[in-house]
Amino acid sequence: MGCELCPRRCGAKRHEGEKGFCGADDRIRIARSALHFWEEPCISGKNGSGTVFFSGCTLKCVFCQNYRISTQNMGYEISVGELAEEFLRLEEEGANNINLVTPTHYVPQIISALDIAKERGMKLPVVYNSSGYERTDTIKALSGYVDVYLPDMKYFSDRYAEKYSCAPGYFKFASAALAEMYSQTGKPVFNENGIMTRGIIVRHLMLPSLLFDTKKIMDYLWETYGNNIYISLMSQYTPMKNAAEFEELTRKLNAKHYDAMVNYCMDRGMENVFIQDGSAADKEFIPEFYGKK
Known about the structure:
The chain is of the alpha/beta class. The protein has 9 helices and 10 strands. The chain has helices at residues 41-44, 67-70, 80-92, 107-119, 136-141, 158-165, 170-185, 211-225, 255-267; strands at 28-36, 49-54, 76-78, 98-101, 126-130, 148-151, 189-190, 196-205, 230-234, 273-275. Strands 1, 2, 3, 4, 5, 6, 7, 8, 9 and 10 form a 10-stranded mixed beta sheet that branches. Strand 7 and strand 8 (196-205) form a beta hairpin. The two termini are 31 Å apart.
């Protein structure tokens, strides 16, 4: 049977070596496994988040900062057992959690690796850090394995989803997946150090000229979940060369637009919103990825 993990259901026979839309066959490929300190405060904390960046992606965002791994598939292959070893190593190094970045196309292998790591004593909460472009069946398979969901909510309008990410039906799939995530986690829970151990943080990267689309997403999240989830409203958009064909994406986000949206959220009574300083919109915040072990 062909792959149906993401909404594309491309049918690639990955177990036979065929690569899907994501650029992956069934061999796990990662680009980085290390402590990461630039996530939201309740994810990174002081000790850092134990992030594993998976190569390949189910989206093709023209503005992707990590295009070397998402589109060019930069990275190196590891086995399921070796992935479990990475989880255990990150725990030993003091990570607050295991943070799975762009993991959708490797969900079955990740589940197997988590089983091994837990059998060997791993106790860290698991963070599922994704684009939000998910099938609910895939998210259901993660019940009992994931403690914190960290999905994007990139677009409300399909027009922009198709134009910038080649992702038809993005909001329909992302909103349905979010509902399943919430059914698994419920309201957020934090430990004594302020680290989230259960719950949801929805990330939204504001794009230049898409202020109205952002407003619709904030309205949807507030009206559906209120203060039962956290939102990370991101100002860090950094123009990348791959987006050069779209004139509106060749500039950074207007700071006044970001401030206006922050004020809008406050006026609506939204309490659980992380905001960013404009200095985050810089290429120096893009992690270094590895082409080999």
